[in-house]
Amino acid sequence: MEDNQKRKKDNKRLWWILVSVIIITGVGSSIFFFNFFGIGLDALNNSDTAGSVEQKDLSVEEEEKINTVRSTLGESHQELGDFVSSTHEFYNDTTGYGGINNLDWEEQRIK
Fold first, then answer.
1. Residue 59, SS3 per DSSP
2. Is the pTM of this model over 0.70?
3. How far apart, in Å, do the first and last CA atoms of the chain sit?
């Protein structure tokens, strides 16, 4: 009978140790992850505005720089965007909505 009680006590102790190790490992891993990637607790609580800057906090030079970047964004890739758009439209028209079942392979090769 004493042997059975000792075994139960050892099992209970083993479970407490296992659960404690899992919890400590999880907390330690989380701390390491957040520190490694530079994520603060404010990012978890307020993810929409974390790392953002209010417009009133910007200087005139910074505001001009941002506007310059915004105005030139995508200019160098406009031609590529037009190509992708026209190709997507062609294949969507010829293969979409059941069109794949009766493809004209010559038309596909030409495009």
1. coil
2. no
3. 85
